Amino acid sequence: MRRCVKCKGEPVIDLKSTNAAFCEEHFIEYFLRQVGRAVEKYKMMAGGQQVLVAVSGGKDSMALWDALLSLGYEADGLHIDLGIGEYSRKSRLVCEKFAAVRGARLYVLSLVDTYGTNMEEIVRRTRRVSCSVCGTVKRYLMNMVVQQKGYRVVATGHNLDDETAALLSNLFSWQEGYLARQYPCLPSTHPRLPARIKPLVRLGEQETEMYCRVKGIEFWAGDCPLARGATSLVYKDLVNSLEDKMPGTKRRFLFGFWERGRRNFTGEPVELKDCSLCGQPTTADTCLFCRLMQKAGINPLSQPQVSQV
Amino acid sequence: MRRCVKCKGEPVIDLKSTNAAFCEEHFIEYFLRQVGRAVEKYKMMAGGQQVLVAVSGGKDSMALWDALLSLGYEADGLHIDLGIGEYSRKSRLVCEKFAAVRGARLYVLSLVDTYGTNMEEIVRRTRRVSCSVCGTVKRYLMNMVVQQKGYRVVATGHNLDDETAALLSNLFSWQEGYLARQYPCLPSTHPRLPARIKPLVRLGEQETEMYCRVKGIEFWAGDCPLARGATSLVYKDLVNSLEDKMPGTKRRFLFGFWERGRRNFTGEPVELKDCSLCGQPTTADTCLFCRLMQKAGINPLSQPQVSQV
Predict the structure, then answer these.
(1) Per-residue confidence at A49, pLDDT binned at 50, 70, 90?
(2) Which of A130, A254, B7, B58 gets the highest tally of CB atoms within 10 A of its CB?
C-alpha cells in the first residue's frame, strides 16, 4: 500500500477512486472535508445549524452523525426501532451508546410501542416489497418527529454507493420523476415538511466504515433480514464491478448527473393537500402511509411513542 | 427447453427476454417481424425502398442484409476492406459469397488500394483509440460511396446489445450530445449525407447469430484484433449480467429511453460547413477524417477504390 499522500505516514486506506492513500489523522481530515464540501456545495445548512440525523446504527449513519457533530453542527439523532429481533435490538443499542458517550441528544421511536407490531409483520400484512413499505413508514414517522420537535432539516446517511445504485436503477426504468428529485439537498416543499439532505454523497461505504473504525465509533454491521434479495443490491454489485475496472467511475457518473444530466429532467410540479385521514401533506386523497397501515389492519392515527435519551 | 410458442414444434431458441421459444420457421418469422416493426416504428424507409447496408461479414450485418432483402427492400451491400490480415480476408470473402449466392449487389472499398496502407497502420500512426479512428474512417468512406452511387439511406447492423451498451456508456459519462443523437433512425442533416438507420435494434446478438444459422447464412465470427480491451465490451458484460438476473432489462432500458428518456436531451443544433481540405460536410474547419489522415501522413484526397461484385 502507498504511504499517506499528506505526511508519508503509515496508511490506513488507499483510495483508487481519488488516487490517494491516507494515514489515520489525514483520513479523518479528508473525510470531514468531503462532508463539509457536500454541505457547502449543495447549501445543505442554509436554514441554520440544527439538523435531525436519521440513525439506523449502521456505519453510514453513525459516521454521518459523528461527522456533523465534529464539524460543529447541532446534530440530534432519531432512531426508529423497527422491532425486528436482534437486528433492531443491536441497532438501537449502538445509537444509545453513541449518544451517551458523545453527550448527544437522541430520540427513539418504537414501532412496537406505537402500533403494537413490528416492521416484519407490517410488511407481511401489506404484501408489498419490504424496503418500499419500510421506507414509507420511516419517512412518515420522521416527519412526525420533525414536527413535534421543531426541526427544519433531516439528514440521512445515503452514501456515494447508495446514490449511484439508485441513479442506475432510476435510469434503467426511466423514472423521470425520481430522476428530477434525486439530489443531495431537497428544500422543504411544505411548511410541515423538512428539507432533506445527504451529506455523505461524496464518500463510499469503504470510507464510512473506515471512518468508524479509525474514530472508534461502534456500529452494527448486520444486514436487515427483510432486505434480502433487494434489487438495489444488484445495481450496487454492478456499479462496484465497473468501479473495479475503471476507478473513479462512480464519482464521474453521479457528480456528472448532478452537474449536467439532472438538469434535463424536470419533474412535474407537485401539489400537496392534506391527507383525508391523518392530515399530513400528500399528493393523494389519503396518504400512502395511511393506506399501508389500513391494509395492515393498524390504526394510522396512533400517537408515535418517542423517548428521549 | 420449451416447445415453439406458435406450433409446439421442436424449438431452436428460447428467449427469456420476451418469454417465448420458437421453432426454425417461426423464429425466422419472429425475427423478420422485429426488423419490420423497427423499420415502421421509426419510419426508417420514409425515403423509398433503396438502402445501402454496411456489411462487415459478421453475424449482425449479414443477418441484416438478408432480412432487408427478405422483406423486399432493394438492399445493396458495402464492405470496407480494412486490410487487417486474415480477419479482413475472411470478412470480405463472406460478403462476396453472400452477394454471389443471393444475386445481390455489393460494393467493396479497399483501404490498401486507396491509401496504400491498412487500418492497423493508420491507428498506429494516429496514436488514437482504434475503434474511434476506425469508426471515423469507415463513416467517411461510407458517405463517399453514398454520394458516388446516389444512395439516400445507410443501414448498419447495430443490435439491441450494442445500443444498450452504448446508452449505458453515454449515461455514465453524461454525453448529452451523444444521448440526443442515439436513435434508430437519424434523418439526413445535409444534402450530401444519408439518413442512418439501425433496423436490428429490437434483436440481440443471440438472435442475429441464430438467424444466420437457421437460414444457412455464412458469417465470419472472428473478433477484430484491434478492438481488444475496448470499453464497450465492459458495458456489454455489465448489461448482460443484469439481463441474466432480470430478463427483459435491456429492452425496457433501451425502449424506455427512446419513448421517455431521450426527449429530455436536446442536442445543440449543429451547423455544417465544407471541410477546408476535402469539401465534405463537417462542424470543424477541417474534418476529423482529414485531420486523422494528415496525422498518419496519408493524403486524405486519394480517390476511394471501389469495386462492384
Answers:
(1) confident
(2) A254
